[in-house]
Amino acid sequence: MGFAGLRDLPPPPLPDPAPQAMPAGGPAPGQATPAAAVQQVNRNARRFAPKYVVAGVVIAIFGVAVVLTRLTGDDGISETQPPVGRGLTLERPQIRWCVAEDIRLEAGRRALHGDRKGDVQRFNEMVQDFNARCASYRYRSGMLQSVRGEVEARRSQLEADGAARFQ
């Protein structure tokens, strides 16, 4: 028992042999001294290291974003209409719908023909539905700002969609 099993282990490795002495005439032509070689390696490491670190960080962030997108199933553009209610905690696609619908409604209001009674009534119903779903909701920290950025990238298409509702 105890340490009996250690007896069967191989002995520890021997230390590296002493460094070889430099030939009397110095290094052969084209060969650097060990100290010069180390300095050259250090200079190259300092020169290229920041580039590789930045590239590595960018690749890592991209990889994490891809993995999270696949795990959550969120493509950055899908919208899900939230349920009617106040104070509900909405998920990312539901917040995206609220932010996008606000843009569509604003564009629809600008395109609205006030002389067509049906359009005004339909617009008011859309606003009431929007308010019932999006007037008061909760979200996780940082999610609203992130979703706003995603939706802003599609603003021109959303405005066109909103205006088309009343043409």
Low-pLDDT windows of residues: none
CA radius of gyration is 33 Å
Strand content: under 5%
**SS-based class:** mainly alpha
The helix-strand sequence is HEHHEHH
Number of strands: 2
Within the largest sheet, what's the order of strands? 1-2
Compute the number of helices.
5
Mean pLDDT: 78
Span between termini = 89 Å
Give your account of this protein's structure.
The radius of gyration is 33 Å and the shape is elongated. The protein has helices spanning 34-72, 92-111, 117-134, 143-152, 155-164; strands at 88-89, 137-138. The protein is mainly alpha-helical and 167 residues long. Strands 1-2 form a two-stranded parallel sheet. The longest helix has 39 residues, at 34-72. The relative contact order is 0.10.
Index terms:
two-stranded parallel sheet, 167 residues, 5 helices, elongated, mainly alpha
Q: In a nutshell, what does this entry contain?
A:
The chain has helices at residues 34-72, 92-111, 117-134, 143-152, 155-164, and strands spanning 88-89, 137-138. By secondary structure, it is an all-alpha fold. The chain starts with 33 loop residues before the first helix and ends with a helix.
